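User: Show me sequence and structure for the first protein, then do the same for the second.

Assistant: Starting with the first protein.
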Amino acid sequence: MAGASFVGTTIEWYDFFIYATAAQLVFGQHFFTALSPAAASLASVTTIGVTFVVRPLGGILMGHFGDRLGRRTMLVLALLLMGVATVGVGLLPTYDRIGLAAPVLLVVFRLMQGLSAGGEWGGAALMAVEHAPVHRRGLFGAFPQLGAPTGLVLANGAFFAFTAILSADQFASWGWRLPFLFSAVLIIVGLFIRLRVDESPEFARLKERAQRSRRPITEVLRHYPRTLAIAIGVFVANIGIGYVFLAFILVHATTRLGVGQNTMLLLIVLGALFWIATTLWAAWRSDAVGRRPVYLAGSIWLVAWAFPFFLLLDTASVPLMLAAVLMLAVGLGLTYGPQAALYAELFPARIRYSGASFAYAVGAILGGGITPLAAAVLTESTGTTMSVSAYMVLLGLVTLIAVLKIPETAEQVRERRRSCARIP
């Protein structure tokens, strides 16, 4: 089950990230040609964030039906929705051919991706955790988490390959569409895997005992507001600083620092691979010492590394830039690995899909929704990336406060350790 969650979320995030990469590289010249080059670039990057407008809606809708009908059904729907939107972007005529309809449809497809992303993560995370033994919830829950950095590797790898194979004119004209169209193959593979997976045993028991919530999101908001606030807060730094890594440094390095596009794509891929490794380690470690200590270390790391990150990155020296990216990936992994298990443990099973999905979506809005745009505006208005570092510190402090409120007790840690000791 963990493997199936990993494959599904990887495909979802591949689709998500190829859009973000293409928005930085080519969308401005194809869909916003009526604007000046600078305005077109800004408008293109801004569309990356429009998904955050509908993520909570996706979380509410898929969370509701995930708690009522089952986790697997919503995961299949999320994958289909993301696939249709991604292939649609790959086939979309440009502004020169259909005028204003081109950017409008581009935004519509991006909103569809946002609806999908709002419900995808919660279902995949819960399917992995709810199939896991108690003493391995953190480790099993890491596999859907790996979908984000792995999807990033695949997305940037695809653009790296196509930009290497094609000439600059070929890539700018039509080659950028190929990663989007290739998604159709991945979606078929993902659907085949998800349709063969059994429903979550915890949901099956709820259904058998007629214990499903009739209005899960209402129950979350009414009876678990503090828990919801904690779940939102612990994600703010990870998603916000993650979007600096995912959606800002590529355009910053290539346009302001003069670093080659393929060089920067490779650095981001290496950083994502390190992110995968630290995510797995953090999830495994959280099963032994608890979620809060691992989160606490990651939150402090992200705050402490915010200024050194850009000081090294802005040197435009490839070894120093690599060090900056790898060390940032450590903090991202520490605050990402335990997340699925933590969310599952914060909310009761009857409202878990709704609670986890809504918290994830709102955390994404507060942390990542405006981060790419905010980072670009801060850099332009202040003339220095130190302002972006200060913004990263602010996000890190929000998460740090939430982490200190995680209601993990010493008894929960001891129970996980007892469970480990009983395993021969």
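Switching to the second protein now.
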Amino acid sequence: MRRYSITTVFRPVTLVFSSLLLLSACEQPAQQSQGGMPNAQVETITAKAVDAPFIISVPATVSGSKEVEIRARVSGVLESRNFSEGQTVDAGQSLFTIDLAPYQLAYEQAQAAVNAAQARLEQAQRETKRLKKLREDKSVSQRDYDNAISSVQIATADLQASKVQLREAKLNLDYAQVKAPVAGVMGRELVSEGTFVPGPELLLTYITELDPVRVRFGLSEREQLMMRQAQKKGELSLPEDGQWQTRLRLQDGSEYHHGGEVNFTDVRINPNTGTSEFQAIVPNPEFSLRPGQFVQVELIGAVRNNTFVVPQRAVLDNGTGKFVYVVGKNEQGATIARPAPVQVGEWYRKQNGDKTENLWIIRSGINAGDEIVVEGMARIFFPGMPITVSNQQQQG
């Protein structure tokens, strides 16, 4: 029986395994970083000074452009409510009806008084006309004729007074129909049918005009001072006459589809908050914005002059501050990623076709011509790591 040694059996296997390792090593990429790690594949942009939008984003509160208390101008028993709570109504629409009968009677009485006054005036005019001829024939005294003329004047004044009373009666009759002074959304009913309404002192309900709406927000004194200083240095161009345009973002981050305009800026600074109040008017034809709603308002119209912008994804934070990776060379001449601390300003969205890109304005830390890494930052495991730039594009 033939015997085999262990050494004899496994020697060919060892040689084959060594050959496989050698072949695998030959297939590795030739370009590697120190320690055998491959270069990080990145994409860059070239920094170029541009004029960029200066957009301020602050929280704001929505309120109706008009919030009107509804009160009756006349007294009486409330017969009916002519609206539903929360209903949209038009200006002039009837909201409540007060018992009309007393005011209808008063109107008819005033109309009868006008008719009587008109008849007395016509009688006095006929009498004066008759006495005028008699006076010309010396058949009546001057006193009788003068009295006739005075009767006409008195009857004319009585007619005018009765017409005023008629207009007052008509007005009260109209006021018995409590109507909406503006278009808007009705509030809660505060008085039920059958209640005696003494007059304007009793609040019946309220109506809120929702198109347009007012958007109110505060801007800090510190931020306003920084803007004025930047404007003096030529770094910032502000809207003429403070006519900021506005854009709203809702709580879910979506953009409201109607823009607005700032129409009021308070010159006073609130000592409790250190802010001054701003107000913008925003169209709301669909009534999708409601009073009390919180939104984010963006002020548009200013421009950062001669600044740098980079995609937000390119700006990183190491816990002590923000930085970007800039392409550089090490002592051996290899291309590396060098961290550059930056001071960021505002961020804004730029629409490129159907794609929205979020950008940071860089106040300091980079220079024109710097290559900024914008893709592949996660592959850079340490500062100064060798990199390979796969493509390069201009900023803008």
